[in-house]
Amino acid sequence: MDFIHRVAPELREGIAGLPPLHLPEDLAAARNMIPLLTERSDRVRITERVLIAGSGPVRIRIYEPAKRSKHKLPALLWTHGGGYILGQPSGDDALCESFVLAANCVVVSPDYRLAPEHPYPAAIEDSYAALVWLADINNGLSIDLTRIAVGGASAGGGLAAALALMARDKGGPALCFQLPLYPMLDDRNTTPSSYEVTHPAVWNRANNLVAWEMYLGGPAGGTDTSPYAAPGRAEQLAGLPPAYTCVGQLDPFRDETIDYVARLAQAGVEVELHLYPGGYHGFEHVVPAAEVSRRAREGYIHALARALNS
To answer: What CA–CA distance (Å, rounded) separates 126 from 52?
Structure first.
């Protein structure tokens, strides 16, 4: 059965509306695409700051309830997706607003440097600097330091997983939860699902290989890639915070996600995984009105709310 007929019927319309992406030649055009405008919530305040980190200035986007009580709030450090080569925090405005409203939390999203201009470790350095700042009692955000989570989707999910590893290894900041959604975890691309998805309208093997090479600044799949670049390579997973993730069955990251979650569970980490039949990469954003999209989105939003308020 070909790829299109394996896609869930309610998600097929999204395939037709997705322009094919061919990397590296389409990178500039993809970066210049104007994102769709989303309706803003008047219950969420969005501000920006620039942090001065060891690696240089890092712009961050902050989402918080427009009307806050005097109580300290939990927080999420959210890293946007885009294959480590695309994207910006504002592209996730609607989603981050949903996190704020559902979990009554503060969300901070760093505008980390992108490859290939800034290969690894630029993105994780910027993201970790933002996480350290988020956990600083002097940042003015009034955060409950016992309730800080990391999350992201796709490459952002890979960064979230890497941040959980880095925070554990560096002795902080302490994290209570991680939300790496259909994460980009492994540069080796040797799983069956990494070979399975080749359709030009969705994130596929060819683009994934190019994106990894751009991010690593050279050939992917070598023997010396750091687990902070590709968390799927991490050998020791004990001591990481509880995790929730989901992935579509037709996502090239399906198998590396399942493998990572299985190894987290084997290491004693609490995990929850949802696999969506007929779902391709990022399907819940491509066809947001589909029932399976609503279910997926509500699943991870509510998982965050439970983790930050339990």
So the answer is: 10
Q: Is 255 a catalytic residue?
A: no
pLDDT tier for residue 228 given thresholds of 50, 70 and 90 = very high
pLDDT of amino acid 17: 85
Contact in structure between 70 and 143 (CB atoms under 8 Å): no
The pairing of beta strand 73-79 with beta strand 56-65? unpaired
Catalytic residue among 92, 255, 281, 293: 281
Short-list 26, 29, 80, 17, CA closest to 207: 26
Give the residues across from 149 on adjacent strands. 76, 177
With 80 as the cut, is the pLDDT of residue 34 above it?
Answer: no
List 93, 111, 186, 251, catalytic entry: 251
Q: What is the DSSP string of 110-128?
A: E----TTTS-TTHHHHHHH
- Residue in 98, 109, 154, 194 annotated catalytic: 154
296 vs 37, which has greater pLDDT?
A: 296
Catalytic residue check, 144: no
Provide the token pair at 101: 């409203």
Burial 121-147 (b: 16+ CB within 10 A, else e): bbbbbbbbbbbbbbbeeebebebebeb
CB neighbours of residue 34 within 10 Å: 5
Average pLDDT score over the chain: 95
Mean pLDDT confidence for 77-87? 97
Examine the residue annotation and report whether 186 is marked as an active-site residue of this protein: no
